[in-house]
UniProtKB/TrEMBL annotation:
Gene3D superfamilies: 3.30.70.100
The keyword Hydrolase is annotated on this UniProt entry: yes
EC class of the enzyme, as a word: hydrolase
Name by which UniProt lists this protein: Acylphosphatase
Organism: Dasania phycosphaerae
Organism ancestry: Bacteria, Pseudomonadati, Pseudomonadota, Gammaproteobacteria, Cellvibrionales
Amino acid sequence: MAEQLSTLHGFVSGKVQGVWFRAFTQQQALAANVCGWAKNLSDGRVEFMLSGAADDLLAVCKALHQGPEHARVDRVDVETLAYKELSGFQIR
């Protein structure tokens, strides 16, 4: 049976800028074989898009709820989209 592929789009709120959150997201994604991107928004949130196998996406999302050492994650809003093929992981 083929793995279920999915794409997640979301936003992380809290103290998530200036604490290496995007690099942390990239590190977690690459370790889980997930592609995508992360970028800072002007309102202080980090936006992300992740594509990969459902179990791998779940692992990355769990990590995003914790964040790196100096981050404070208040909220993670995620929506599941139709699978979109992405390559690598970009910090925007």
